[in-house]
Amino acid sequence: MKRCTLALLVLSLLGPAACASDPPGSGTGGISLLFARLAAAGCEPSSAGTGSLPKDADNNPLIDSLTVFVYDPARAGIDFLTIPSKDLGAGATWLVPNVPETIHKDENGEKYSSPLAFEVYACNADKQVVYAGRTLGITVADQKVTDARLYLAHAGAASCAGNQAAAQGGSLGEARTLAEGVPLASGDAVFIGGLNSFSGTGGIASHAVDFYNHQSGGFRTGPTLASGRVLHHALRLDDSRVLIAGGFTSLEYYDAATHKPPYPPILAPPLPASSVLASPPAEMIDGSSGLALPSKVLPGQGKSPFSSGVRTANHILFVGGLNPDSDTVAAQAAFTRLDNLDDVIAGNAGTATNGTLAVARYGAGAVAFNDDAVLVWGGNTDADVANIAEMIGPGEAKGVVRKVNWPSGAKDIQDQITKKRIVTTLPVVVRLGANDERVLFLVSGGLPITASGALPFTEDMVSYVVSASRDASKPIEVQALGLSKPIAPRAYAKGTVIERLDPPRQTLRGIDILIPGGYVKNSQSQLCPSAKSECLLDEVTVLRLEGDPMSTKSSLVRVDDVARLKGGALGVAHAPLPLGVVIAGGLTTVVGKADSPMGAEGTVVLPPRGTSEDEKADDALRCNPPK
After folding, report:
1. 45: closest CA among 220, 156, 157, 166?
2. Which of 305, 417, 458, 494 could form a disulfide with 269 if both were Cys (CB 3.0 to 4.6 A apart)?
3. For 392-470, where are the alpha helices, taking DSSP H only?
């Protein structure tokens, strides 16, 4: 086998071989390629190849060539093979045969396994990437691959999750909204809990757990939670285990006569019938075994409605929230730090310590520095812009308010400060990057907090980027986005970050920020009553930051909305994949009723290809490997 400078298996369907190789081995194993199909009106269920590559609406082949990058962490050099098109296979699947073995020997002659990662780019005749996919954890022995697949989704478009080989196909096992999606180190994701139905008074929480398999592009049903829960925390503890804490078994419809602010006006936790608002005991999900596990973490951890949960390098922090131990609904100035996470992973209680915030908060954003410090943003019920940010240092028992410098030349931001509407609860907060000196994050929208506690929400809410130094003596800097086309600020939505790397996966070209769906309009007295465009966003908004996010030369640009959500727009759950994001569930109306449609369909979205000169060169390499 020939050693080359890039990890390439080049499948040239119509062109010449890209790199000569030794004669292929006699093994019969390989990687099955599963293509997602795309129709003019949206996505269709994906399927494996059946003797022909995917075609466009005019029945013309979409794909001219496939390039397969192979990443083996155990080898200093990188191999690639040329495989003639006849070896792709026909019938049930397209096949990448003769995969290099992953069983190696160390200096003492002991065998060990080093799983491979594969990236596949399918290019058209114009040498543009049409499909892309990445699969992790492929183990090869004796030239055989067991049940290894790679799901190829459309670049810059929406693909329906699911395929013929998936146990459950392209949907959650149970339609629901407000589930929590968590990525696993394997490249898969898990979707936990949510709201699965409505009754006469409100909504019922789901016990469901679903796993998304990134290799096959489909879902499978996981274990059943001991307690249904919604408005809960789901935080990854290690490569595969997820802690589930807090939440409620039901929600009530928001009623201005009974649910006084500060409840966000859509769905609210049940009004406490006694002095204590109950929350289910904590649980764990193990993504490697697929089991639900008991946890001895105390039930009080993370139980406050609209508290914020953040996983740092060495602990978990639950910040603020509405006071669950009082009949009077009010935000609290408290946080809990959960330490000794190895003990928690083993099923024990860990060590919990309580601390005090400088200001009472609920629905705040929380982002971690590299050293376990956490910056808390917004949600402060005094609505004072001077208190919008505070930092909780590692091991500290009290939060400290941080000074913020606002951009004087950004009229939209200054207008919101003047109107005292800059402080919001439930904003979209996305951590863009961090180093030892600072953390960078995006803030968009949220429900404004006013001095009277009311929560009006209009289209003039703002979005901006925050750069916070770890040095508490330095003010936090806010940067206006300066986009030619603004993004719609929203609430009840979350964002995720996808890194864009060069083919050798050594240089960071930039990041994409994907924000699916969200709630965009209501007034103090009236909810938007339906799923019209002025009420809910049914697209996936993509922002692109060119270059290293932590570089002063990086710049944020707007990418047009790349997909429409079939399942819902309010409370959609999502989790990052090796090359994109998987989205599932959601509610298509603002106010739930007994017959309100819940979403179950899964959608895979890959951001559009990069447009910088470096990324054009990267794609040229992906579609035109060196001869």
Report:
1. 166
2. 305
3. 411-418
Amino acid at 293: L
Rounded distance between C-alpha atoms, residue 419 and residue 581, angstroms? 36
Domain hosting residue 192, numbered range: 180-608
Helix (H) or strand (E) holding 616: helix 613-623
Q: DSSP label at 88?
A: G
For residue range 359-396, list pLDDT tens digits in order: 999 999 999 999 999 999 999 988 899 999 999 999 99
- Give, as one character, the DSSP assignment of residue 207: -
Q: Are 585 and 599 in contact (CB under 8 A)?
A: yes
User: Angle at CA 259, nearest 5°, toward 257 and 262?
Assistant: 125
Task: Report residue 531 as tokens.
Answer: 């799923």
The continuous run of DSSP H or E covering 244 comes out as strand 241-245
Taking the C-alpha atoms of residue 185 and residue 137, their distance in angstroms, rounded to an integer, is 10
Domain membership of residue 167 (yes or no) is no
In this structure, the answer to whether residues 217 and 142 fall within a common structural domain is: no
Q: Is 59 exposed, middle or buried (0-12, 13-18, 19+ CB in 10 A)?
A: exposed
Residue 18 lies in a domain: yes
Same-domain pairing of 218 and 82:
no
- Rounded Cα distance between 391 and 377, Å, is 9
- The SS3 of residue 344 is helix
End-to-end CA distance of the chain: 16
Q: Which of 350, 424, 349, 413 is nearest to 381 (CA)?
A: 424
Q: Which residues pair with 572 in a beta bridge?
A: none
Q: How confident is the model at residue 14 (pLDDT cuts 50, 70, 90)?
A: very low
Question: Strands 103-105 and 65-71, how do they pair?
Answer: unpaired
**Is residue 165 in some structural domain?**
no
Rounded-to-10 torsion of CA 612, 616, 621, 626: -110
| Residue 199 sits in the same domain as residue 144 | no
Q: Highest mean pLDDT range out of 137-141, 163-167, 365-369, 589-593?
A: 365-369
Q: For residue 625, what are its two tokens? A: 């490997």
Decide: 3 and 77 in contact? Cβ < 8 Å. yes
Lowest mean pLDDT among 265-279, 300-314, 430-444, 586-600: 265-279
Domain count, the chain: 2
Q: What is the pLDDT of residues 52-69, one digit of tens each?
A: 556 665 666 667 777 777
- Average confidence (pLDDT) over 326-344: 87
DSSP per position, 470-508:
SSTTSPEEEEE---SS-----BS---EEEEEE-TTS-SE
Query: Torsion angle of alpha carbons 24, 26, 28, 31, nearest 10°?
Result: -30
**Model confidence at 87, in pLDDT bands (50, 70, 90)?**
low
pTM as predicted: 0.90
Q: What is the CATH number of the domain that holds 410?
A: 2.120.10.80
What one-character DSSP code corresponds to residue 380? B
Q: pLDDT (tens digit, 9 = 90+) per residue, 149-181?
A: 788 888 887 887 875 455 567 889 999 989 999
Shared domain for 140 and 227, answered yes or no, is: no
Dihedral angle at the C-alpha atoms of 319, 496, 238, 242, nearest 10 degrees? 70
